[in-house]
């Protein structure tokens, strides 16, 4: 018992007293909470459950408590924690939780309701620091039926154990749909008995860049697939936790892996020979022949056998029509069907698949591009171009799931910290994510009823490891859970932030490696005479940032940061955010020095353009941690505003190269690079403007042979006062793509 009390104290200690009194540290926030007088002592309580659903919920409660605090709950007919079936609790996922001084009762009419009631009770017990929980009545049901998370296993393969752990964590926050992206240009992850080459060929690729070759110079085979036994086990595991798995088989685009395995499926005269190693949009499409539909129907038959979900996702997005335009067979099909263009041909393609699925008792769901054609009325639209597709779908009588980009795309950065993992370069901070609108305006009540729910997507192009995936998912997936479960009028960021520390403590107890960088202050340091000006930023956008300048740990009573500080060199500055009197963020510290004013990470620099900003990962070493950069891949150019050049004689630049493995089609003409003077190219430093005078040209020859980060040094002409410095690369082509990591101005000796 002692261990659960101690663990719970960690959780409850992160929640301010005022906030905790207003709302227990629950996530998602229940529909209705009525606090009562008294407290229930759970330290010697037992669980009573009768039927299979009650026992499953009781078992879930006991398991969670054991995993996060070592509390052992036993069963007894006279148990004071009771799970009870009650038809009066209306709703497929609704429950009532009643806590009195004497006992606790979880009531629901469904197994799912009992399960979710157990999740709420677990959170209350886990947050207790004295072995008791407050008396209350919780009446709860979700705002949306579809509360989804998409896992992209096509770009990077994850183990079956990882998928099961994800499902378990989703269930803990009442997420109930795992959209499983199993096929794409870069990989095919599901075995189809009638077509064994789909995994023999389609499940494996050679990575781009240095990672594509091993130490002996041999090509690397990268990928994997799930056996049917593993898939069935995962599906059953999810069902036990009331999570439905919706499989996605991409068509008519994102088909390179399938076409490499079976070239007769291709629309192009020269089909792809191997799954793609690039990110972006390949032009490879399935052709529109009857034999190809026979193949897809065979595939879907086996998918249906594996996945009992009502919905089957068929993709439908980003189908570049160039190959259909050039394919006489596609043009003949357009003419025969009386269609106007290739967009309507895609509509016909998806509708034909939708009709087949409907005949098998399933419903088609696809990305919002499926609206280009006449899809079946039963088709569900997943809106990723903002929420506009969801509005169009609802007005046309289609069900819709809102999954707007970039708001709900979990591959975006969460802060401008240099410690952020690889991903897309637009920052979607926690507050912005939580406040994403999910109730479209301008819909009638009947149209609004077509909005089934919301979903966040984990696209894994830039997520090679499970560590990166976990950091990008959590705690944003938990925020999504509240967006999906709790009515919008009950959600408010500051109140949510007060409950977030308890959620983070639960995630830590469950072994989830959530991203901590938004909880740490960012610092920018500039010279101010013989002192240092310090500008701080709080990425989490909650609470108050406090600091100390004597090396001591910040407390709630420490000075609050309100404006830039001017401090002496050698000062030990430490920062931490607080909600009221309780710590919220994580501590961050610096020992100030003049050298800090002359150093900038790439993430602290301004980009010359923002066509496609990314945080790409280096491609070496094969397994260990790699360098992560930040820049616009269309125009790698950075600006150091007001660089302190007085007394500066040189520059040290840390640079690296990443493979330009991006399918950008005609946009390749938009790439901007300076013309090189040497074979490998040079780092260019310009003064005051993008086309200003070049004050330094640093050859990249030696660095070109290093797949990791290289250090370059160069002399700079003496300048008076601050100047804007522009950094870019002159190179013969985009591959490899050179990127900045860090810059340091070197004073004259």
TrEMBL record:
It catalyses: Hydrolysis of terminal non-reducing N-acetyl-D-hexosamine residues in N-acetyl-beta-D-hexosaminides. Pfam families: CHB_HEX_C_1, Glyco_hydro_20, Glyco_hydro_20b. SUPFAM superfamilies: (Trans)glycosidases, beta-N-acetylhexosaminidase-like domain. The keyword Ion transport does not apply. Its EC number is 3.2.1.52. Residues 1-21 form the signal peptide. Coiled coil: none annotated. Residues 144-487 form the Glycoside hydrolase family 20 catalytic domain. Keywords: Glycosidase, Hydrolase, Signal. Transmembrane segments: none annotated. InterPro entries: Beta_hexosaminidase_sua/sub, GH, GH29D-like_dom, Glyco_hydro_20_cat, Hex-like_dom2, HEX_bac_N. It comes from Novosphingobium clariflavum. The keyword Flavoprotein does not apply. This is beta-N-acetylhexosaminidase.
């Amino acid at each position: 018992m002692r261990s659960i009390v101690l663990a719970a104290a960690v959780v409850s200690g992160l929640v301010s007293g005022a906030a905790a009194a207003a709302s227990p540290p629950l996530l998602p926030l229940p529909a209705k909470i009525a606090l009562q007088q008294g407290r229930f002592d759970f330290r010697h309580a037992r669980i009573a459950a009768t039927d299979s659903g009650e026992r499953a919920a009781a078992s879930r409660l006991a398991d969670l408590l054991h995993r996060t605090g070592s509390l052992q709950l036993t069963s007894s007919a006279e148990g004071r924690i009771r799970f009870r079936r009650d038809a009066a609790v209306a709703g497929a996922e609704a429950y009532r939780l009643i806590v009195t001084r004497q006992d606790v009762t979880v009531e629901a009419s469904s197994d799912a309701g009992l399960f979710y009631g157990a999740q709420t009770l677990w959170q209350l017990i886990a947050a207790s620091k004295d072995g008791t929980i407050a008396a209350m009545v919780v009446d709860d049901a979700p705002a949306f039926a579809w509360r989804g998370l998409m896992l992209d296993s096509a770009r990077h393969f994850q183990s079956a154990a990882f998928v099961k752990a994800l499902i378990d964590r989703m269930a803990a926050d009442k997420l109930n749909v795992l959209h499983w992206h199993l096929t794409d240009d870069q990989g095919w992850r599901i075995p189809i008995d009638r077509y064994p080459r789909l995994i023999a060929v389609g499940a494996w690729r050679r990575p781009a860049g240095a990672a594509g070759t091993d130490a002996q110079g041999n090509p690397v085979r990268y990928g994997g697939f799930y056996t049917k036994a593993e898939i069935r086990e995962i599906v059953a595991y999810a069902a036990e936790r009331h999570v439905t798995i919706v499989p996605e088989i991409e068509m008519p685009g994102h088909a390179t892996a399938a076409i490499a395995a079976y070239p007769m499926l291709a629309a192009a005269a020269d089909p792809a020979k191997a799954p793609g190693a690039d990110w972006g949009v390949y032009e490879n499409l399935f052709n529109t022949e009857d034999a190809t539909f026979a193949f897809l129907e065979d595939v879907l038959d086996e998918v249906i056998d594996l996945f009992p979900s009502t919905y089957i996702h068929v993709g439908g997005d980003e189908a570049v029509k160039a190959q259909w335009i050039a394919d006489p067979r596609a043009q003949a099909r357009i003419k025969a069907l009386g269609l106007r263009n290739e967009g309507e041909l895609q509509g016909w393609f998806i509708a034909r698949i939708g009709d087949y699925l409907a005949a098998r008792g399933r419903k088609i769901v696809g990305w919002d591009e499926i609206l280009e054609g006449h899809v079946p009325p039963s088709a569900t639209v997943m809106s990723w171009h903002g929420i506009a597709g969801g509005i169009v779908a609802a007005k046309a009588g289609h069900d819709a799931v809102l999954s707007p980009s970039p708001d709900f795309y979990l591959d975006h950065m969460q802060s401008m910290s240099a410690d952020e993992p690889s991903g897309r370069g637009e920052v979607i901070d926690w507050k912005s994510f939580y406040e994403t609108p999910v109730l479209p305006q301008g819909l009638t009540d009947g149209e609004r009823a077509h909005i089934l729910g919301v979903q966040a997507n984990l696209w894994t192009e830039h997520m090679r490891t499970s560590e990166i995936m976990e950091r990008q998912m959590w705690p944003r997936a938990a925020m999504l859970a509240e967006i999906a479960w709790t009515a919008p009028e009950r959600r408010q960021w500051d109140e949510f932030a007060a409950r977030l520390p308890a959620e983070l403590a639960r995630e830590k107890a469950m072994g989830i490696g959530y991203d901590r960088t938004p909880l740490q202050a960012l610092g920018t340091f500039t010279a101010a005479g013989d002192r240092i000006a310090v500008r701080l930023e709080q990425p989490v956008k909650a609470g108050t940032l406090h600091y100390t300048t004597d090396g001591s740990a910040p407390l709630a009573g420490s000075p609050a940061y309100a404006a830039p500080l001017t401090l002496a060199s050698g000062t030990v500055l430490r920062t931490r955010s607080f909600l009221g009197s309780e710590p919220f963020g994580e501590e961050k510290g610096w020992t100030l020095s003049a050298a800090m004013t002359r150093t900038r990470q790439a993430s602290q620099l301004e980009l010359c353009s923002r066509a496609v900003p990314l945080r790409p990962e280096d491609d070496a070493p094969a397994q260990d941690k790699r360098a992560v950069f930040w820049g616009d891949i269309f125009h790698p150019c950075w600006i150091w505003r007001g660089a302190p050049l007085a007394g500066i004689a040189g520059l040290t630049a840390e640079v690296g190269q990443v493979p330009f493995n991006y399918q950008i089609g005609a946009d390749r003409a938009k790439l901007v690079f300076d013309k090189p003077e040497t074979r490998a190219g040079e780092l260019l430093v310009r003064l005051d403007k993008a086309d200003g005078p070049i004050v330094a040209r640093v050859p990249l020859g030696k660095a070109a042979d290093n797949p990791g980060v290289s250090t370059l040094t160069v002399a700079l002409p003496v300048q008076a006062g601050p100047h804007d410095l522009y950094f870019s690369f002159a190179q013969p082509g985009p591959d490899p793509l050179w990127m900045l990591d860090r810059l340091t101005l070197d004073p004259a000796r």
